Amino acid sequence: MDFNSLLNKLADWGWPSNEILEESKAQDEREKFDAGAINSTLHKVVNAFNKDKIPYYVCGGIAVHHYGYHNHTTDVDFVVYDVNRAKQTLTAKGFVPTEYYDSVQDVKSGVRVDLMQGGSVFNDDHLVTMPDPQLNNSNSINYAELPVLISLKLDAARSKDIAAVEELIKANSLPRDYKVDPLMKSSYETLWDSLHTKLSSAERVKIFYSLVK
Q: Structure pTM?
């Protein structure tokens, strides 16, 4: 499902028009960064991490795209074993610091790279611990495992995160007993049930928003 189709679906469900407008504006911003710029930065970071033997995995919108939901994003998210060391590696490669403490920017593409500490929760509003990454011994890109990605998206619980999980469930034909983080099991099952039960638009909206923080 493309982005406009998703917005139309949310409108049919009764999503507030102001939120649809805000998400549409955010999408316009995301589309300023073409796939080439995002992929260029992604591979630049991966090559730097592999060369310096920094354990990592890719999460966020890029990982969602990898698993079959073709969304747009403006940044690249990495979970790393040591944020400070990862930042040092990237600044040595010409990336520059941003206003955000754990982020750097690719000067050439303008794409921001967000670095998150493995073995911790994202912040005090979150519950799920991001697993420690493992060293990547191949030339392929190390993505977050799908159960981890879904758990982190359910934990983030923004409307776009819940919508992304819906699309990942459908794109990968995931079962109800999929092995997500135990803390997110109830949210996952609620969302799965809503996708596999005939519901009215009002009922579907109520369930959707019950999962949004």
A: 0.83
